[in-house]
Amino acid sequence: MEIPPKSPDGSLKSPQSKELITSNTASTLCMSSRSESVWTSASRSKWDIYHKPVIVVSVGAAIFLFGMVITSLSCFLPKNKNVYKMCGPAFLSLGLMLLVCGLVWIPIIRKKQKQRQKSQFLQSLKSFFFNR
User: Fold this and answer.
1) Which residues are bridge partners to 12 per DSSP?
2) 89, 70 Cβ separation under 8 angstroms
3) Residue 14 counted as domain residue
4) What CA–CA distance (Å, rounded) separates 56 from 102?
5) Residue 102 domain flag
6) How many domains does the chain have?
7) Can you spell out the DSSP letters for 22-44?
8) What is the per-residue pLDDT for 97?
């Protein structure tokens, strides 16, 4: 025999009564949404918009330079030459990958910003004509 689940206040409730409980799903969904709402027109600074790709580009450039140093060490230091020859290109490729991903991310954000501005303009235009 299955025991019905207990509610937070400790009383027993049937599965049918759980469905009848009203929820704040719509308001919670709007508040916890990761994307910007069309209705908010708060302007964001350039740093708020581009901080993630800038960080990815900087980390990628640092790892790429570290890979260059490690690779060049294999030419100058005969000791542990095989280790330098293996690790250097790995850091080079990882750094280059992050660098390119960050550099591609920036135009994508710019395009989304333009689309968002167009969308907000169309929303205001639509509300102007239909809310009369």
Assistant:
1) 6
2) no
3) no
4) 5
5) yes
6) 1
7) ---HHHHHHHT-SSPPSS-----
8) 97
Note down the domain range covering 109: 47-125
- Backbone torsions φ then ψ of 96, nearest 5 degrees: -65, -40
pLDDT in tens, 63-83: 999 999 999 988 888 888 888
Give CA torsion, residues 92, 94, 95, 96, to 10 deg. 80
The token duo for 60 is 């990628």
CB 88 within 8 A of CB 65: no
Name the band, by pLDDT with cuts 50, 70 and 90, for residue 29: very low
pLDDT tens-digit readout, 74-132: 888 888 888 888 999 999 999 999 999 999 999 999 999 888 888 887 888 778 788 76
Find residue 6's DSSP bridge partners: 12
Of all helices (H) and strands (E), which one includes residue 104?
Answer: helix 81-130
